[in-house]
Design a protein that fits this description.
The complex is a heterodimer of chains A (225) and B (108).
Chain A lengths: L1 H29 L2 E5 L4 E4 L2 H11 L9 E4 L9 E4 L4 E6 L3 E6 L2 E2 L5 E12 L7 H6 L1 H4 L16 E7 L2 E8 L10 E3 L3 E2 L2 H10 L5 E5 L4 E2 L4
Parallel strand pairs in A: 4-13, 7-11, 8-14, 10-12
Antiparallel strand pairs in A: 1-2, 3-6, 4-5, 5-6, 8-9, 8-13, 9-10
Chain B lengths: L2 H24 L11 E3 L6 H15 L6 E10 L2 E8 L2 E8 L4 E6 L1
Antiparallel strand pairs in B: 2-3, 3-4, 4-5
The chains are: A alpha/beta (225), B alpha+beta (108).
Keywords (chain B): Signal
Protein name (chain B): PepSY domain-containing protein
Chain lengths: 225, 108
């Protein structure tokens, strides 16, 4: 009888652990991106592997992450940049309650942030100098500690918009990327990445001083907000 | 037409009708509009809706709008979003409908 009860308790414990693991798995998937597949007419999970395959097959990101003009009800002035980190979109406010929308890649778990900043300066094919924290955690960044010249392999891509809080560089940037398939994913160290064509287009439309609002549910607020 | 063949025709018509109804039930839903071809499993309020709440909080409290930031949001029914905002550490909750009409702004 006691052995039977112990076996029952073990089974219950196993069931609870299995349920807990299941919940953890569901929670881990909970924030994931999905894209609509027009062929199967189904929503499919969109992770790093699928994103890479999609880009290899189409030489393009999924339609949702390509630039498009959308309706945007706002009191913000035209020229303001609004980043929706959860949905992986950057909006550039236009006149007439509309916005130009671009797909973006954002900070991976623990690297996302939210805040209100401004474009402090812009650069074409910028030099990439990894910050000290990145050098400390990423051995590959050490060789570029003195700065990596701009070019097609540079992680900042074709343009960089340097984000400032008042007159101070936040170390965050909106920039291009040599890895366009990462658009739509949580992959960066906190910077906002765009396809090179898109960041070039954005930089041509934006003025230094433009307000940048970064929305990201569950992320740390950037100091000063 | 005999009574037997008439019954057979009726059964065939009913069966075809049933199959047609069944196929209508299982057909795929229409694709979303072009600007809604991606989503995340956790549904947040659209960015413009979140910022309409920030604007409403700034107007209602007289606070500096550059210090008010939406920090979380979610759909509470098919027509309404709840947006939580941080105004220099002060928390505020806002209810807004899917058309962008702010229904209420309350400190939390």
């Amino acid at each position: 009888m006691i052995a039977g009860r112990a076996a029952l308790q073990r089974k219950s414990l196993t069931a609870i652990v299995a349920m807990a693991l299941g919940l953890v798995a569901v929670a881990a998937l909970a924030a994931g991106t999905q894209v609509f597949d027009p062929k199967t007419r189904k929503w499919v999970d969109y992770d790093r592997t699928k994103a890479r395959k999609y880009y290899a097959a189409h030489n393009e990101v999924p339609e949702a992450f390509r630039p498009q003009m959308v309706k945007f009800r706002t009191a913000e002035v035209p020229g303001t940049i609004i980043i929706d980190g959860n949905q992986h979109f950057l909006y550039l406010v236009q006149p007439g309650q509309r916005a130009m929308r671009y797909g973006i890649g954002v900070g991976r778990e623990g690297f996302g942030w939210a805040g209100i900043v401004r474009v402090g300066r812009m650069a074409e094919w910028p030099t990439w100098t990894p910050p000290a924290e990145m050098i400390a955690r990423d051995p590959n960044a050490v060789k570029h500690a003195g700065g990596m010249p701009g070019g097609p392999d540079n992680p900042l891509g074709a343009r960089a918009l340097y984000l400032y809080e008042r007159d101070q560089d936040t170390i965050y940037r909106i920039h291009g990327t040599p890895e366009p398939w990462t658009i739509g994913l949580d992959v960066s160290s906190g910077c906002i990445r765009m396809r090179n064509d898109d960041i070039t287009d954005l930089a041509s439309r934006v003025k230094v001083g433009a307000k940048v609002i970064v929305l990201m549910q569950g992320a740390a607020l950037y100091k000063g907000v | 037409m005999s009574a037997k063949s008439s019954v057979r025709s009726s059964i065939r018509a009913i069966a075809i009708g049933f199959l047609a109804a069944l196929s209508a039930c299982v057909s795929a839903p229409p694709p979303p509009p072009q600007d809604q071809m991606s989503r995340t499993k956790v549904e947040t309020a659209p960015a413009d809706i979140q910022l309409l709440c920030a604007d409403a909080v700034a107007k209602a409290s007289g606070a500096d709008s550059t210090k008010i930031l939406p920090v979380s949001s979610g759909k509470i029914d098919s027509k309404t979003y709840q947006v939580e905002l941080d105004a220099s550490g002060k928390k505020t909750s806002c209810l807004v409908d899917t058309d962008g009409n702010v229904k209420s702004v309350q400190p939390t």
